[in-house]
Fold:
Amino acid sequence: MRTIPHLSVIERSFVPLIVALAGCDREPVTPGAESRPVTPEPVASAAPLAANDPLRAPLADVAQRVMASVVSVASTRTVPAMRPELPFDDPWFRRFFGPELGPEWPLPFPGPPEDREQRGLGSGVIVAPGVILTNAHVVEGAKELEITGQNKEVLQAELVGADPKSDLAVLKIKGTTSLPALEFGDSARLRPADIVLAIGNPFGVGQTVTMGIVSAKGRANLGIVDYEDFIQTDAAINPGNSGGALVDVEGRLVGIPTAILSRSGGYMGIGFAIPSNMAKPIMTSLLEHGRVTRGYLGVTIQEVSPALAKALGLPNTDGVLISDVEPGSPAAKAGLRRSDVVLSVGGQVVRSTGELRNVVANAPVGKDVEVVVSRGGRRETVRVKIGEMPASTADKPASPGTPSKGDAGLLIAPLDESARRRFQVPSSVKQGVVVSAVEPGSPAARAGLRPGDVILELGQQPVGSPQQFKERWSKVTGTTPLLVLRDGRTLYVALAR
Structure:
């Protein structure tokens, strides 16, 4: 199972939580290996429900219908062998053992290690005749794909396209099949506490149905994939469920299970599914073009924390703060500026960086959309012609700052040639001061400032020298915003006395 130890709060806990993609561990294929049957422990039988029980019949009918459209996806890939670096070609060894050792593999090594095959196991959903929707991580690096339906029919499939940014992939079955397609539902209609069923092949034990409720919607900023708008559910999702079906009580596909939040890598009551309204257009794009086209603004964005709202003089924390605008981007051409707070795009209100990125990504490329921003205390509407996001670029969130009290605890230096070389500051940055050291436990440290940060503005005024920074800082009585250049991007940090 692949794990993503990404959440900073989780990393700091004594027993770290793990965001785990819910796909089975890939195991090496061992020729001739046999599996031992597992004999279950006897358990006491509960009294069966009546056949006409209102809680049993509808869900059983739904599950029976849906299970025919959920398949097991087995992938095979080649894993390069580990080749340790041996020193036999070193001149020192040649002095003692002769030139015949060279770079070859001498005794006691019988020969170079061989590449091996690994198998991964996940699930998939038939969404159209011969078309399967699954997770990208289930089929990552696969050279062979084998599909097994509820009727035990084994079929071969090929990859149509994958989108790692959303963790979705589309497969096509080779030949014909009688497996029925599952109808898409409207994930926007889901509400917390709605009943849902998760169908997949957990741990490879066979097709399994679990039931739960929708715990929450719109989960984002988890660091699992680039574009997140997850449905959170307590329906049991385990390794092997990835790419399966999350359905409503009417048997319509409302989500694709993709990840779990866990201490151990196993199910602990928190699972995430990609909503059907997000999955369907991505699937369509992969089928038609083999790739996904997304909208692009060309901005760096961050959440508006209470400290930043206070420092920037904003009335509240609504919207998303633009901390940088890429030159020549659609945002720059439309007149969007650094420190603008985006309130809505195309009529859709945005409350977080994740929401803004998803709205922009889904916007039609080449079309004008209205972007409502808060600028200098006034609401303004800017028309932006949405561009196409380059393959290696995205409207990325910046790291937020944290409020602090007391003295700054900063050691700053002028932005001279020595500092530019040491901290790799681009020549396009004409002025600012460089943070050369941060006192541990100081307000600057708690605000997230780091050595190598270039402070461009203090209190929304340019800073040209350490002396100018010190003079302006001495006049600060509360919280002030710093505009900082870090890793080629700018972000705002709230620093307080």
Remarks:
- The CA atoms of residues 453 and 486 lie 5 Å apart.
- Residues 295-388 form a domain with the Pdz3 Domain fold (CATH 2.30.42.10).
